[in-house]
Amino acid sequence: MNLSEELTQHFPVINKLSDDLFYTLVGVSFDILQRRKTESVFDSDPDLEALDRLALKQAYALIVALILEAGRVQSDPIAVRGTLSDNNVPQSKADIFVEKYEAEQEGLFRTLNETSFNYPHIVGVDWRLNYFIKSNSVERENRPIYFLKLKTQEPSPIPSASPSAAGSVEFSCTLWELLDLQAKLRDAAKQIE
What we know:
Blueprint: H1 5-8, H2 11-16, H3 19-33, H4 41-44, H5 46-49, H6 53-72, H7 77-86, H8 91-114, E1 121-132, E2 143-153, E3 166-173, H9 175-192
Antiparallel strand pairs: 1-2, 2-3
């Protein structure tokens, strides 16, 4: 998981929190991220009100960043625990965070999927070739036109679930446009490797 250096400086702040306060802050953070609560809870919760405002802000920022980064890369609990132990988080706090992460993982993935943008995956191609001999405006054309139908599938918000909504994208192109598309796809594939 990639956390900025600015955020990793706040690990000592969460290490100073009691386990009960850390448990409350982690729970509130998940609730806010999944829209079950708003940040006004910081003013109404007596445990969180008692905490120094700067320490609360730093701890909350770090916990939210941990949750979002773990959800973004769809980390398993072992990887999350490893990140916490690499940053010298006590075992008791790591257990609290990982248990809550496991319990909220499915809802977190759903929320992240709803609030993010993902291109659909191409899962198939249908094509046909039409050869135009003449048109209404020109006596002789003699040119091929390719009709392509890309079958797509939206990625699932939950890694273990089956993919969701299927769709398609249809377009037509000339031979040169098709060759240009092919070259661009090869360049994209090379950049990914």
